[in-house]
Amino acid sequence: MRARDLLADFPTVALDTPVIEAARMLADQDLPGLVVVDDDGSPFTILPGTQVLRLAVPAYCQDDPALARVVDEAHADAFLRALDGRTVRAALPQRPRELPVTDPDATMLELAALMARTHSPLVAVVDDGRLLGAVTLQALLDRVLAA
């Protein structure tokens, strides 16, 4: 089985897409992450949903989870408001990581190794510089477990 056999159309966002719009896409389409493309439409990086949360959750709550408990419920439920006015570019890590991109001929083990190494729930599949789609962790595990 190859990447081309697990490939699915996958939504993309640009670096200047509002991050709240990206969060809505993640929620509305039940996605583990998004493929971020540059101005040429080539994959720039993968934006996992957890990275969007990292941008929205106050740093003091990430550093000390006990502090999250002392925030009243009304304010705790509104933490995504911190995303207003920010772009996907702001949600990306400071230091670029290895880009989880492969070609359509990658095997399932190659896909799994790339996902594990890059901590990414999806891999962009590119052929001749063109984004074909992505393979998700769920699709990979479904296929491996069925075998």
UniProtKB/TrEMBL annotation:
Gene3D superfamilies: CBS-domain
InterPro entries (alphabetical): CBS_dom, CBS_dom_sf, Diverse_CBS-Domain
Annotated signal sequence range: none
Residues covered by the CBS domain: 94-147
Keyword field: CBS domain
Pfam family, one: CBS
Coiled-coil segments on the chain, per record: none
The keyword Phosphoprotein is annotated on this UniProt entry: no
Name of the protein in question: CBS domain-containing protein
Species name: Nonomuraea purpurea
